[in-house]
Amino acid sequence: MTSKSGWRSNMNSIWSTIRTVATSEKVVYLTFDDGPDPVVTPLLLQILESLQCKASFFVVADQVQKNPEILQLVRKGGHAIGTHSWDHSYRNFFRADKVLRNWICRAHDDLTLRLNESPIGFRSPAGVITPPLRRVLRGLRIPLIHWNTRFFDTTFGFNERKGKKAASRLRAGDILLLHDGNCRDHEKFLAGVQSLVTEGQALGFRFDALPKTIRHPSTDL
Ligand SMILES: [Zn+2]
To answer: In the CATH hierarchy, which top-level class contains the domain 17-210?
Structure first.
């Protein structure tokens, strides 16, 4: 725990979940969950493009059904895309493996068809990790990609001040969690992202999309 606005953890050894990227470069990875959102996501994409940075979007499949053209904007922007489940419903974590597997596959397969390639991995709603989830993902060879820094932005919001503070705490390989869906105040949120990237770049950091080769260590053969 480093602060109210930034939270880090190092749980890799317990769950073998991807939370950071091993790198010798000053590169960090912004990730955005819960979209695509018809208002916030296009504006966010414009900001990312103007700052010449790439990010990763963990999309909810039922939001993709409502906003398929926004997903294609994300893809055309050169960002990485992963799944964040079909409907963001937690109840599937407590059902039989078969149900859990179908829930994950439905979103994964839908996105694969739309993108013409596999999504980079799965991020679970609310960060829930259970032994059945790990078992199912391992069987499907889908990496579980979480984060090491979060801001609770859907609860407390995100803004320029928080973005600047976050930039001062960046470390190479960080995966940062923010949300383009369920955004509290999108103007402040976007100003926060802009501030984080601008300040981070001034400190020499590059903001990149998660690599397509990212893999859960235990699923590598
Ligand atoms: Zn979420």
So the answer is: alpha beta
